[in-house]
Each structure stands twice: as C-alpha cells, then as structure tokens.
C-alpha cells in the first residue's frame, strides 16, 4: 500500500484502498460491538506462520492479488488467514466479499481487526457513523494498535470532530513515532483548524518536506470537510 505519490495521497490510499466498496450493513451491527472476543488464536505450524508472514508483506507492499493467490495455494485454515483474505479482497475492490468475512470474524480471536475492516468499508462508502462505531469497537479491542487509532482519527476528522481526531492522531504517533501516515493526517487536521504554527512545527518534527506541506495545506483549504 505504499508507492503512491506524496503525503495525504498516501494517507488516503492507506485508509481507503477500495475503489468500489459497498456500504456496511449497519442493521447487523447493533449490539454486537460490545461483545468483542478476547481469546487467543489457535496456533499454526512454523511453515504456515512463515507463509502468512509472506502474505502480510505482500499486502503491505500493495500486492493484494498476489496475496490472494498465495492464500489459495497455502490452504491454511485459521482466523488469521481469513483476516488476510478479507483484507486482500477489500484492497482489490471486492468490499462485499470482504465484509461477509469480516462479519464472520467479529466473534473470533481477530475480532478487533475485523471491526477495523468493517470500519474502513463503511468509511469508503461515506457511512461515517457506522464507520465510527466499528472503529471505536476496534480501538477498544486493540487499544495500542496505532493503525486503528489513525483510522479512527481520520474518520473523526471527516465527521468534523476535530478535538477527538487530534487525540487519536497524537496517540497513534506516541505509540509509533515513525508512523508517517498519522503525522500527515495530524498536520492536515491542524491546517483545517487554521493552526498553521502548530502544523508547521509538527511537520518539521516529523520530517514532512515543503512540497508535502503545500499539498496538505491546499487540501485543507480546498474542501475542509471532503474526503481527499
């Protein structure tokens, strides 16, 4: 999921890597978010763990089609493998198939990540309230996961809740100081708030170059409430 151009383009692609997702089924979410599973996943063999690690790397490198091919070849029966399949399907634009898998995983050992996936699908579909519910649940299940904190902050920003978004971005960066996506989102948020001195200070702190800063500032000025 790297390899896009600058700053916020990268941040948006990482959050919304689904060209044609369908809306999350909010009718199935009522009451389920409070029952997030907290149990260990079944162990897989060393060989299977190595294969899953390779597939995760493919997804991180923006190769979801290759990841799906390797999942088909590996034939691993585990919640971790199903989560990777859902992530890959989401990234290839098959949001409906991904959503069905995520929903099945919400009571599994990877429930927090499943709720994150549902939140990303809902966000891409423009259903911010459903997305916030899913991501809040994911954050409760995995409170130290910096990617979920960033995703939650991004949707809060899009919903206009800048104060809570700020806290989510800062939490993500304290958990993972080198997490550039959260740094970009934080600077964008500060530009949207008109707090240019703090935006520039954070940009300097996180090594955001002048061209990226200009893009973020222009993005904030063009349409402060629209998705990039």
UniProtKB/TrEMBL annotation:
Can the keyword Transcription be found in this entry's annotation? no
**InterPro entries xrefs:** TPR-like_helical_dom_sf, TPR_rpt
Q: Which UniProt keywords apply?
A: Signal, TPR repeat
Source domain of life is Bacteria
Q: TPR repeats span which residues?
A: 146-179
Query: Residue span of the signal peptide, if any?
Result: 1-23
Name the record gives this protein: Tetratricopeptide repeat-containing protein
């Amino acid at each position: 999921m790297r390899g896009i151009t600058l700053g916020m383009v990268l941040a948006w692609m990482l959050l919304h890597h689904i060209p044609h997702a369908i809306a999350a089924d909010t009718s199935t979410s009522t009451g389920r978010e409070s029952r997030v599973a907290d149990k260990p996943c079944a162990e897989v063999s060393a060989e299977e763990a190595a294969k899953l690690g390779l597939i995760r790397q493919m997804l991180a490198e923006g190769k979801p089609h290759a990841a799906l091919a390797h999942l088909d070849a590996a034939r691993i029966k585990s919640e971790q493998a199903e989560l990777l399949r859902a992530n890959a399907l989401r990234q290839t634009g098959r949001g409906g198939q991904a959503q069905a898998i995520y929903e099945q995983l919400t009571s599994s050992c990877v429930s927090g990540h499943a709720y994150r996936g549902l939140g990303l699908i809902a966000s891409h579909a423009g259903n911010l309230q459903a997305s916030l519910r899913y991501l809040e649940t994911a954050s409760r299940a995995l409170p130290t996961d910096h990617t979920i904190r960033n995703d939650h902050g991004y949707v809060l920003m899009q919903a206009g809740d800048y104060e809570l978004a700020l806290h989510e971005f800062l939490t993500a960066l304290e958990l993972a100081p080198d997490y550039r996506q959260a740094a970009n989102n934080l600077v964008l948020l500060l530009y949207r708030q008109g707090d240019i001195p703090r935006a520039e200070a954070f940009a300097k702190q996180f090594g955001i170059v002048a061209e990226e800063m200009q893009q973020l500032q222009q993005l904030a000025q063009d349409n402060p409430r629209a998705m990039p």
